[in-house]
Amino acid sequence: MKVAFLTTRREKPSYRFRVQQFLPYLQGQGVVCDSYIIPRAIIARWRLFRSLAAYDIVFLQKKVLRFCDRRILRLAARRLVYDVDDAIMYRDYGDRVRLSPRRNRLFRAMVRMSDAVFAGNDFICRWAANYSVHVVCLRTVVDTDHYTRRTPGERERIVIGWMGSSSTNRYLTMVLPVLEHLAQTYPISLLVVSDTKTGIDLSRCGTLRVDFTPWDSESEVRDLHAFDIGLMPLPDNELARGKCALKALLYMSSGVPAVCSSIGAVRRIITDGEDGFLAASPDDWHTKIERLIKDAPLRERIAEKARRTVESYYSVAAYAPRMLRVLSTLFNDGSVP
User: Fold this and answer.
1) Distance between the two ends of the chain, CA-based, in angstroms?
2) CA distance 337 to 333
3) Residue 57 belongs to what H/E stretch?
4) How much is the pLDDT for 319?
């Protein structure tokens, strides 16, 4: 079986976590895997699409294509998989999130033309199911061999961590007043790991100590190991419901107890109070972060259970055989299980 994976950038999280980390397993099972960057230039793009007739399956990640691109790709691809892990049919207008008719029209066309749709969570799965019966929920997972569990140690301050990017920095601002209030009582600091500080309203931090580390793939695991508590605040909107809770999975795999907004995919992943905490209000955030700050044994119990949850249900080791089974069924029968 030969599979061509199409993406816009190999550095993007959706490629790293939904394709790249599965390649060693698939190749070890005899699958020929080739990855291609979709060219911006029209002629180069069409030339690439036509060349994909040599593959048994074409795996297109997230990108929505216009009519001519769709037609050329569909004519070339023997079997086409459309993989999506974000609510791309919605648009953030700054003050509100709403359905984009254009994006939804393109998303619908992509789903209908594909032999199978791989959806990263239940929200996307339900949406895609409006347009196709060939939808499979293949959740975003992490490589627990790479994202190892941290070794806890004594520190002067409890480090509360947040890892994100320019597109999600503004979400952290939601919990800064809670952290500033807690900093008046407890020896805590905030460690931000992101590609930029833009979007974070540091004026709301008050006396809270804030450290910033630029995100880098080489230091990502080490940076996660520096956290004592991990945060994942999200707004209550459709874009947030369409996210796959990757941040929470990274914390949990790394043995970092997580406190997350009770929105979207994370509600399926975390059992509140068992392997993490879910917060639905500022008081929730304050209470649950405070519990973890005050109770080191609780942090370790949560971290241990969180790691087991990821290993059992949300790891590459747990999910790779399923991905292979779905691809093999599509290759052999032209259907999805």
Assistant:
1) 18
2) 10
3) strand 57-61
4) 95
Q: Where are the beta strands (DSSP E) in 151-268?
A: 158-163, 188-194, 209-214, 229-232, 258-261
Residue-level pLDDT at 186: 96
Q: Return the pLDDT at 152.
A: 82
| Residue 162, SS3 per DSSP | strand
| CA separation for the pair 308, 317 (Å, rounded) | 13
Query: Which residues of the chain are modeled with pLDDT < 70?
Result: none
Per-domain residue ranges of the chain: 2-141+315-333, 158-313
CATH class of 158-313: alpha beta
DSSP assignment, residue 118?
E
**Fold: same for 2-141+315-333 and 158-313:** yes
Please give the Cα distance from 293 to 175 (Å, whole number): 15
Beta-strand relationship, 97-99 and 90-92 = antiparallel
Phi/psi of residue 318, nearest 5 degrees: -80, -30
- In 3D space, the residue among 91, 85, 84, 92 whose CA is nearest the CA of residue 109 turns out to be 84
Q: What is the reported pLDDT for 61?
A: 96
pLDDT of residue 195: 93
- Say if strands 116-119 and 97-99 run parallel, antiparallel, or are unpaired: unpaired
Q: What is the pLDDT of residue 252?
A: 98
Largest interatomic CA distance in the chain:
64
What is the per-residue pLDDT across 21-30, written as a single tens digit (0 to 9) for each?
999 999 999 9
Helical H segments across 100-245, by residue range: 101-113, 122-128, 169-172, 176-183, 220-225, 238-241
| pLDDT (tens digit per residue) in 300-310 | 999 999 999 99
Phi-psi map region of 25: left, alpha, beta (phi>0 left; psi -120 to 50 alpha): alpha
Does CATH place domain 2-141+315-333 in 3.90.180.10? no
Q: Is residue 55 classed as helix, strand or coil in its secondary structure?
A: coil
